[in-house]
UniProtKB/TrEMBL annotation:
Domain of life: Bacteria
Complex formation: Homotrimer.
Protein name, as recorded: Bifunctional 4-hydroxy-2-oxoglutarate aldolase/2-dehydro-3-deoxy-phosphogluconate aldolase
Keywords: Carbohydrate metabolism, Lyase
Gene3D superfamilies per record: Aldolase class I (3.20.20.70)
Pathway membership, UniProt: Carbohydrate acid metabolism
Amino acid sequence: MDLSTALRTERLLAIIRGRDAEASFRTVMALVEAGLPLIEISLSGKDALTVIRRARAELGDAAWLGAGTVLTAPDARRAAEAGANLIVTPGLGAGLEESVRQGLPTLAGVMTPSEVIAADALGVSALKLFPASAGGPAYLQALRAPFPELPFVPVGGVDAAAAQEYFAAGAVAVGVGSPLVGDAADGGDLDGLRKRAAEFRAVCAR
């Protein structure tokens, strides 16, 4: 399954940005066990590459393990070496270009029509509308008018209620960080994480 198909099928990308590497790893495992196999581990989190490497060794090909906040070409290369099979960027730049050059599935951060055109020309897998909260579902709907066939994934400030609105506006999936993960990746409650995962899965199944 390619990334675009996976996004349309699962409809949720879980985003982990933890201060505790062990807790981040446990969070990855809990999310996959809860039926959320699309996961982004931000490189701005503690020992993110180690988390990706451990999770890949444990899960094999059972999940999409992405590296997020990929800014530079070395970021992209290190992420690939750690086992990431998905690259997520906050915007256009060297990290995205290197990821595409390597043939890695990419979710490119965009906000404007010009950025959409540039990202699509690179051959990215999908478009991360970021920060989505700056425009909301109405902005996504307006942006899709000239780009109706492109896959958009809103990220930033997306809770369960907003997710429903973004789906109604045409999003193929949403990226969700703290409203889903909470404090789990910092050593917090995994039971709460599992409960929120079930709630988001229900929203995405509608």
